[in-house]
Design brief:
alpha+beta; four-stranded antiparallel beta sheet; Immunoglobulin-like; Serine Threonine Protein Phosphatase 5, Tetratricopeptide repeat; 19 strands; Porin
C-alpha cells in the first residue's frame, strides 16, 4: 500500500513543480500547439501569437507558421520558417524546440517552391518608369516578386511621356508569371478617335445622290416647249452642256471617300481575326495563360476498414516462464472505424482471434522433468480496442504515409477450452521402470491415468500439483479456484495493450487505402493487413 501512495504523491509533486516553473506564454503555447495539431487553426493562431509575443520558442513558432500556410498567408509563414531555421540551440530549449528548428529548414524549402512570383519586364526602356503593386513601388520590377496565392494584385505602371497602365491579376500556387510591359505614348492616344469622327462624313455621300433628281428637273421645262419641235430633240447640244457632266466630278468624290470605308470596315470586321497579324502577337505575353497547378487530393475524415490480424508467439516467450513450448500463430480478423484528427487517426476496432495451440510439452521453470504436461487449446476471443495513430506523409498527396501509434482495449475468451495432461517419455518401455528416464520432451506422450502405463509412476501419479491432469481435464478460468487447488489459468476477460504499432499506408485512390502494420501486444507480436474505404 505504501508504494502506490508514494507513487501518487510523486506524480502530484511533478505536476505542481511543472506548473510552478512554467514560463510566461507556456500555457497559451501548449493550448495553441494542441489546437494546431487537431487542425483547429482559427483557435490556434491567436493563442500562438500571444505566446510568441510573450516568449519566443521554436516549438510554438513552427505550428503558428503551419497554420498561416493553411490560411493562405504563405509570406508570413515563410518568414517564420526562415527565422527559426537560422536559429541555434539556446539555453532552455528542449527537445521539441530542437526538432522544430530542424523541421523549419525543410518546411521553408518546401514552402518557397509553392509561393508564386511575378516579374514585370518592360519591352523597351522607359524614362522615369515607376511600377507599383498594391500601392507599393517596386525598385526592380524585372526581379521576381513573391506574393500570396489567390490575392488580388493591382499593377500600376507610369513613365514620362506615356499613358498610365493599370492591370489587375491574381497568382496561383507555384506560378511563375512574367508580364511584358508595353506603354502607349501620351500623344499617340488622339489619332484613334479621328477615324471614328470621319465615319459620319463617309455616310454623307449618299446625299448628293438625293440632289440628282433636282438636276433632272431642268430638262422637264425644256421638254414642254420643244415638245412640238421634234428636230431640235436630236440636236444633243444641251445634253453635253447640261450640268450632269458637272455633277459627275462631285460623283467622283464619293468614290474618293469610299476607300476609307472599306479600310474602316475591315479592321472593325476583322478584329476577332487579328490574332494572325504580327502586331497582335505581341499582346499574348500581357495576357499570359496561367498554368493551373495540380489539385491537392482531398483529405477524407471518416474511414471504414476491414482486414486480417494475427498474433505470432515465438517459442522464446514460452521459455520466459518455463521449458518446452513451440512457435504458434493465431489468425483472426478485424473491422474498424477511424476518424481523422489533424495528423492523427482515432481508430475503433472489433477483432476476432482463434488461439488454437496443438499438443505442446511444457513445464514451469525450475520444476523437475516429471512435471512435464501436454498442453493444447481451442480458445476463441473477441477484442475491442481503441488506437491513436500518427500519420507522417511521405509525399505531397499522401500516396504513402508512415504510421506510428498505440492501442488499449479488452479481450473476451467467449469460446473454447484449455487442456492440460500429464506426460511421460514416449521412448519408455511399459513395465520397465528404469526406462522412464528424462529425454526429449517433444517425444513425450499423454498419461492414460495414474501409473498408466505400468512403470510410469514417477510421471503419471497423483502426488504433484497436477494430480488430476489426465485425458479430458479442462483448466478452470482464473476467476475460479477449485477447493484445495490453485486458481485456474484459463483467461476469460483480459486487458489488451498494443505498444508500439508501426505501419505503412498506401492510398492509390481518393477513397481507398491499404494498411500494413506490425506491433507488440500482450498476446504476442501482431501483424495486420487491411483495406479502408472513405465514407
Amino acid at each position: 500500500m505504501r508504494l502506490p501512495i508514494a507513487s501518487l504523491f510523486g506524480v502530484l509533486a511533478l505536476l505542481f513543480a511543472h506548473a510552478a516553473l512554467a514560463a510566461p506564454g507556456d500555457k497559451e503555447a501548449n493550448q495553441g500547439i494542441n489546437s494546431a495539431r487537431g487542425g483547429r487553426c482559427k483557435q490556434a493562431i491567436p493563442l500562438l501569437e500571444s505566446a510568441e509575443s510573450q516568449r519566443h520558442r521554436p516549438s510554438s513558432a513552427v505550428p503558428l507558421a503551419d497554420c498561416y500556410v493553411k490560411q493562405g498567408d504563405m509570406l508570413k509563414a515563410s518568414e517564420i520558417y526562415h527565422t527559426v531555421a537560422s536559429e541555434k540551440k539556446q539555453p532552455g530549449y528542449n527537445a521539441r524546440d530542437v526538432a522544430a528548428i530542424t523541421s523549419a529548414k525543410k518546411k521553408a524549402a518546401q514552402l518557397d517552391g509553392r509561393i508564386p512570383t511575378l516579374v514585370v519586364a518592360p519591352v523597351e526602356p522607359y524614362e522615369g518608369l515607376v511600377v507599383e503593386i498594391d500601392g507599393a513601388a517596386i525598385r526592380d520590377p524585372s526581379r521576381p516578386q513573391r506574393f500570396d496565392p489567390g490575392k488580388r494584385l493591382v499593377i500600376v505602371a507610369r513613365a514620362d511621356g506615356y499613358e498610365v497602365l493599370t492591370q489587375k491579376i491574381s497568382l496561383k500556387e507555384k506560378q511563375r508569371r512574367v508580364i511584358k510591359l508595353r506603354l502607349k505614348k501620351a500623344g499617340a492616344a488622339k489619332p484613334p478617335p479621328k477615324p471614328a469622327a470621319t465615319k459620319p462624313p463617309e455616310k454623307k455621300p449618299p446625299k448628293p445622290a438625293a440632289t440628282k433628281p433636282p438636276e433632272k428637273k431642268p430638262p422637264k421645262p425644256a421638254t414642254t416647249k420643244p415638245a412640238e419641235k421634234k428636230p431640235p430633240k436630236p440636236v444633243a447640244t444641251k445634253p453635253p452642256e447640261t450640268k450632269p457632266p458637272a455633277t459627275k466630278p462631285p460623283a467622283t468624290k464619293p468614290p474618293a471617300t469610299k476607300p476609307p470605308k472599306p479600310v474602316a470596315t475591315k479592321p472593325a470586321e476583322g478584329k476577332p481575326r487579328v490574332a494572325a497579324s504580327p502586331e497582335e502577337k505581341a499582346k499574348p505575353p500581357v495576357e499570359m495563360p496561367e498554368p493551373t497547378p495540380p489539385d491537392v487530393r482531398k483529405q477524407r475524415n471518416v474511414w471504414l476498414g476491414a482486414g486480417f490480424r494475427g498474433f505470432f508467439i515465438p517459442q522464446v516467450m514460452f521459455e520466459l516462464f518455463g521449458d518446452g513450448g513451440r512457435h504458434a500463430f493465431f489468425p483472426g480478423g478485424e473491422v474498424s472505424l477511424s476518424k481523422r484528427l489533424g495528423r492523427f487517426d482515432l481508430v475503433f476496432s472489433v477483432a476476432y482471434a482463434r488461439f488454437r495451440l496443438h499438443e505442446t510439452p511444457f513445464k514451469p521453470k525450475g520444476h523437475p522433468d516429471t512435471d512435464y504436461e501436454i498442453i493444447e487449446s481451442d480458445l476463441q476471443a473477441l477484442q475491442a480496442d481503441v488506437r491513436l495513430v500518427w500519420n507522417i506523409p511521405l509525399d505531397r498527396d499522401e500516396l504513402f504515409a508512415f504510421r506510428v501509434g498505440a492501442g488499449l482495449g479488452v479481450g473476451w475468451m467467449f469460446m473454447g477450452e484449455l487442456y492440460r495432461t500429464q506426460a511421460y517419455p514416449g521412448d519408455a518401455v511399459p513395465g520397465d521402470q528404469s526406462s522412464f528416464a528424462p529425454g526429449d520432451p517433444y517425444r513425450y506422450v499423454k498419461c492414460r491415468g495414474p501409473n498408466n502405463p505400468s512403470g510410469s509412476f514417477r510421471y503419471c501419479n497423483q502426488l504433484d500439483y497436477d494430480a488430476n491432469h489426465y485425458p479430458g481435464y479442462v483448466e478452470p478460468s482464473w476467476f475460479t479456484r477449485p477447493k484445495g487447488r490453485p486458481q485456474g489459468l484459463k483467461p476469460v476477460v483480459y486487458p489488451w495493450l498494443l505498444f508500439p504499432e508501426i505501419g505503412l499506408a498506401f492510398r492509390p485512390w481518393d477513397r481507398v487505402a491499404f494498411d500494413l502494420r506490425v506491433g507488440a501486444s500482450v498476446t504476442g507480436p501482431l501483424g495486420a493487413l487491411g483495406i479502408r474505404f472513405a465514407l
